[in-house]
Amino acid sequence: MKESKNINSLLKKFKESTKFHSDRIHIVEVEDGWSAKREGEKNEIFTVPTKNIAMDEVMKLPQVKGMVVHPKNGKIEHMEFEK
Asked: Helix, strand, coil shares of the chain as percentages rounded to 5?
């Protein structure tokens, strides 16, 4: 019984850690500039010519608590949370 409780607790923690955060925006370098989309969404919110413009525009969006910038090399370049 105790083992089952531990497994359920671990499963709950795993599910919580893999949730998407719709209040987090990912800025991704694309062919024609930089696109922004909410975490877990397929459709982009916008595409602009530069990373700096994208970051500025994300800061204007309501209910955004963080952004993650992904250049083409795939590495996370910038993370910012809590406006």
From this structure: 30, 30, 40
